[in-house]
Write a structure and sequence with these properties.
Layout lengths: L1 H5 L2 E2 L8 E3 L5 E3 L6 E2 L2 E3 L13 H6 L1 E3 H16 L12 H10 L11 H9 L11 H28 L1
Antiparallel strand pairs: 1-4, 2-3, 5-6
Length: 163
């Protein structure tokens, strides 16, 4: 996703259903049927879209950008860490999902989601797209997260070795 962002490709359908895992456990994004080239795209007429994955600015103004893809990535994180739960399942209709997201409803991190991942997910849900994180910054967050986990693991084994 960071590469797509750097090439100004807006995917517009970031979701677990469009992720493929290779034999070497590399996640690849697929289904570029809705993708657009450019920094910002305004849809003249809303086509059939996955409402549960859309950012507030997309729901209100039909605008797409890499920042709306970041929002969708946050929803994807919810999907993955909740074992495929439907986002906003408690909201009865898609019309109500749209209304409530515009009013400020946000997905909560699933109970078993590690704290670091939950913090990353919540950064994806910043209402203002200009203030929302980017995929480049998310990549940095993941690197810090991995380093922190490795540091704790090394510390754990050092403690055990000294005991």
């Amino acid at each position: 996703m960071e590469y797509l962002e750097s090439q100004q490709v807006i995917h517009r359908d970031v979701a677990a259903r469009n992720c493929l895992i290779s034999g070497s456990d590399v996640c690849k994004i697929s289904d570029f049927g809705l993708s657009m080239l450019g920094q910002l795209h305004k849809e003249k007429q809303m086509i059939k879209v996955p409402v549960r994955f859309l950012a507030p600015e997309t729901l209100t103004h039909a605008t797409y950008s890499s920042k709306s893809d970041v929002w969708s990535y946050g929803v994807l994180m919810f999907e993955v860490f909740s074992d495929g739960a439907i986002p906003y399942k408690e909201v009865k209709t898609l019309k109500d999902v749209r209304k409530k997201v515009i009013q400020g409803l946000r997905l909560k991190p699933p109970p078993d989601m590690p704290e670091e991942d939950a913090a990353i997910m919540m950064r994806c849900f910043e209402t203002d797209p200009e203030a929302r994180t980017s995929f480049a910054l998310l990549k940095q967050d993941y690197k810090k997260c991995q380093a922190s986990k490795l540091e704790r693991l090394v510390g754990f084994f050092k403690e055990k070795a000294e005991a």
